[in-house]
Specification:
The protein is mainly α. The protein has 7 helices and 2 strands. The chain has helices spanning about 5-25, 40-70, 85, 90-110, 120-145, 150-155, 160-180, and strands at about 30, 35-40. It has a two-stranded antiparallel sheet with strand order 1-2. It is a multi-pass membrane protein.
């Protein structure tokens, strides 16, 4: 990797971390029957894997989560600190760390970023950016809130329509940005 590529990588990673934080400025929508809100930050998590690939997408999201863990108010609603990782939505945040790796890994492995396979990319984002995150979040929610796992899983179905819209927007935006150039570096062998 040349010095120019290193600077570009650092810049893109910092930009993605800042973008995820900015998405947290938009308030969450409380659901009422479970103690987890509908938020927009998970769209930035999905975008990190699609733009920066498995390694740098995970580094960017890891930096964001580290900022939240040390107490900076970077999560939706101005939250932060270790308590936000131990609360009802902690499982979703833990899953976020793995999401860009899984999305980036499978996009790279299946060479979807270099093809016109829009639908294939959407399937990967839906599997790992929506289903995986909601599944891990539901398991944690069940454990943390002492509700049956099946109830937690069924309650998480409320997130699926909005998350599917976010996944579609993610694929559209990421493919457009990738077409502009500069991101192919992260998907080379």
């Amino acid at each position: 990797m040349t010095n120019n590529q290193k600077v570009k990588t650092l810049t893109y990673s910092a930009f993605m971390t800042a973008f995820i934080i900015i998405l947290g400025f938009l308030p969450g929508i409380p659901i009422g029957f479970i103690p987890v809100s509908i938020i927009l930050q998970n769209m930035g998590i999905m975008m990190a894997g699609g733009l920066l690939g498995p390694k740098y997408g995970t580094i960017s999201v890891g930096a964001f989560l580290a900022l939240a863990l040390i107490g900076l108010p970077v999560l939706t609603g101005g939250n932060g600190g270790a308590a936000s990782f131990l609360g009802p939505s902690g499982g979703y945040r833990i899953a976020w760390l793995f999401t860009p790796f899984l999305i980036g890994f499978f996009l790279k492995k299946l060479k979807i970023t270099t093809s016109q396979n829009w639908f294939g990319e959407l399937i990967i984002v839906l599997l790992f950016g929506v289903i995986f995150v909601d599944f891990v979040g539901a398991i944690w929610l069940s454990f943390q809130s002492n509700i049956p796992l099946l109830t937690s899983l069924i309650s998480n179905l409320v997130f699926i329509p909005g998350d599917c819209i976010k996944a579609i927007l993610t694929v559209v935006i990421v493919r457009r940005l990738r077409k502009q150039g500069g991101f192919e570096l992260y998907f080379r062998k």
